[in-house]
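REVIEWER CHECKLIST
Item 1: Sequence provided? yes
Item 2: Single chain? yes
Item 3: Sequence as submitted:
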Amino acid sequence: MTSATPSTSPAASSARRSLPRPLALPDFPWDSLAPYRARAAEHPGGVVDLAVGTPVDDTPDLAREALAAASNAPGYPATVGTPAARAAIIEWFARRRGVTGLTDACVIPTIGSKESVALLPLQLGARAGDLVLHPRAAYPTYDVGARIAGATPVPVDADADPDTWELPDGEVAIVWLNSPGNPDGHVLTVAQLARVVAWARRRGAVVISDECYAELGWEGAAADGVPSLLDARVTGTGPDGEPDRSGLLALYSLSKQSNLAGYRAALLAGDPELVAAVTEVRKHSGLLVPAPVQAAMVAALADEAHVAAQRERYRARREQLLAATAAAGLVNDPASVAGLYLWLSGPEAMSAFDLVGAFAELGIVVAPGDFYGEAGAGRVRVSLTDSDERVAAACQRLRTTDLFRA
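Item 4: Structure as written out by the authors:
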């Protein structure tokens, strides 16, 4: 009787089809903070975690109540979202972002905005040999999203004239913008946005703007409103006299304005042809925003009072941290006028990780600028997302330290 055990001879093993090679992605940077977190945890006054922009304040009751009321949801939600969700997105864009004329075909809800940052290059057909441009000081997922699609990520100075960008060989497929910027808090003006749009259109490239911090403008013109990529002053008009949003997409998230990070509630809007292409891929992939989450989005997008209250919480924390870090000898980027972070530098001799280590001695965890590209050398990102009590504790420690003195 012959054995039923499969052959394990060298010849049989070599005939097996090899598994696909995993993507060559960079290490997840926050894992490298473990020793600094451990050191900060030894502080007798407890840890203050200002490393990650994770909301800590309560989710508004109106969103929680809407979620609960819609919790009997036995069927699959539509990929394009509920009619109520799409209507709420369109109305919000007109009321809060000055973007009018959007239709149902221009908008969809998404499972957080990070999903879109990571997958849009793939969903839009970027491939090997294509260039995906992103801000030189940038959230790492722009780089990762290009790599997932097999394209080449290229950091550029989004504040500068795009005609001055030095690019490698290849066709520009996508230009990512992030205004207000994470980590640097920079805001692109209408003129700057329009200049990038014109440059990209000459090359047949798509422009995508991640605008998830748009409600958090603090200084200068940003305090009066952060321009959207979809603003008619940016897009120009088509032959029909309507805004020309061809080749343009904007992302927004309710994580920051409404403390809905745990709900994964976000949206995408812009060129209906691009939205349709993305929707088709999402249909096949099963990327569906749960119906109860969409109901919570409708409630949150319609209410401005809770957004204003949250903005004032962040404003107060920012002002306290600005004063305390300045007293400690740290300098915030003068162009950091919006968003959820301070973008700090210290003495020239201190590297980003030297700064992280000094903060850890004070029981404070921050993110090294190196996480955000070469432009982050010698800087740290400090979030506004710990409780009022913890932020006050951090400020007290910073006001009495000499760790950042040359």
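Item 5: Key structural point noted by reviewer: The two ends are 82 Å apart (CA to CA).
Item 6: Recommendation: ____
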